[in-house]
Write a structure and sequence with these properties.
By secondary structure, the chain is α+β, with helices and mostly antiparallel strands. It contains 15 helices and 14 strands. Helix 6 packs antiparallel against helix 9, helix 7 crosses helix 9 (about 160-170) and helix 8 (about 140-150) crosses helix 9. The radius of gyration is 21 Å and the shape is globular. The relative contact order is 0.14.
């Protein structure tokens, strides 16, 4: 691990922490690996919207094409499923079996805290049992599932009933939802039915923590809890401590890490990267200043919690982007948060043109529009 002469070897300043994190996220150098291997390394990709995972893999992998990920979904080798923090993630089917039992306590807790008033006088277990019976017959759109449940519980809000099923049953959203270039309402199926095998019977929290550190570390216990939505994970990290190394950030907080994980040092070059909307890289820590400043977090915040695509310059968020696509043309609009150098602008243009080609599926006309701060 590279350090400055005045910095103790076990202390990571913000730039060194940034570079270590970007290395885990496959954002320092594009990798040549299959999409399913990248999904497993990253412990899935956030997928509130159907297509951000495609951009997430595009920015990390060499020669990634949308059909590879779409094929994993239609072939049932990958699924869209509520996982960490109750957020829909796109993961391999193997990881669905492992991860879904781990987050069950969070899903149950969030159901009660979010819908306590709407669930008054209702037995959630009975709603879940009714939902299971319906889904064992066939997959249901959320609307159809809710309508069927309301025949038995007409006095309770539809959103509360559908979330009972979402939180208490292991459900996945099935294609065409999430398939590149296609549309489709969220349609639920039972995970074990869709992937053809049961979920793990026990939650392996040790493995969950180790995998988080491999993809998001070095990290504090609070970071791990913020990513997963789980609490009381310090007991897990203490159990794992003989297998970990202890580092510190500039504020003196303990950062846990895997002994052989990459920590390339503060001087490692960080190329321009266009991160996907909702990218895990900016949403998976309690303290996100390793990649985005508090000021820029406010700049991308919206009332409806939509997280735009963001741009990394020298490893840190320095702008936002969005695709404006019509039936006849595709544009990528970039908004910078501060002035950039000529070299950085040239890199922004080069990488933006690559993004534009990907977003448009190669079709013309295309336009990259960069707005200065």
């Amino acid at each position: 691990m590279a350090t400055t002469p005045s910095q103790p070897a076990d202390v990571l300043d913000r730039r060194a922490l940034n570079r270590a994190f970007l290395a885990r996220q496959l954002l320092l150098n594009r990798r040549t690996m299959p999409a399913d291997a990248a999904l497993e390394h990253l412990v899935g990709l956030q997928a509130q919207a159907p297509f951000p995972p495609y951009y997430g893999l595009w920015t990390r992998l060499e020669n990634f094409l949308p059909g590879e990920l779409a094929g994993l979904l239609t072939g049932r080798q990958a699924v869209r499923v509520p996982l960490m923090r109750g957020t829909v993630h796109l993961v391999t089917s193997s990881d669905c079996r492992k991860l879904r039992p781990c987050v069950q306590p969070f899903l149950e807790r969030s159901l009660i805290t979010t819908f306590a008033k709407d669930l008054s006088g209702l037995d959630p277990a009975k709603v879940a049992a009714a939902g299971r019976e319906l889904l064992e017959e066939a997959p249901h759109t959320v609307g159809d599932l809710t309508a069927a449940l309301r025949t038995a519980w007409p006095d309770h809000p539809a959103n509360a009933l559908s979330n009972v099923v979402r939180c208490l049953l292991p459900v996945v959203q099935i294609p065409p939802r999430g398939v590149w270039g296609q549309g489709g309402q969220p349609t639920y199926a039972l995970a074990e039915d869709w992937i053809g095998s049961p979920l793990d019977t026990e939650a392996d929290l040790d493995d969950l923590v180790l995998r988080y550190l491999a993809a998001f570390g070095p990290a504090t216990v609070k970071d791990i809890q913020a990513w997963s939505g789980l609490t009381r994970l310090r007991a897990v990290t203490e159990r794992l401590r003989p297998r970990l190394v202890s580092l510190r950030n500039e504020e003196g907080r303990e950062l846990l890490d895997l002994p052989d994980a990459p920590r390339p040092g503060a001087d490692a070059p960080a190329p321009v990267r266009y991160l996907a909307p909702y990218d895990n890289a900016i949403l998976s820590h309690a303290d996100r200043t390793r990649i985005i400043s508090d000021e820029h977090r406010k700049a991308i915040a919206t009332k409806n919690a939509v997280i735009p695509g963001t741009i990394l310059l020298d490893g840190f968020v320095a702008g936002a982007w969005r695709v404006d696509r019509t039936r006849t043309a595709t544009a990528v609009d970039v908004q910078l948060f501060s002035p950039v150098s000529k070299r950085q602008r040239a890199e922004l243009v080069e990488e933006g043109e690559r993004l534009l080609l990907f977003a448009s599926d190669g079709a013309a006309p295309r336009e990259l529009r960069i707005a200065d701060a």
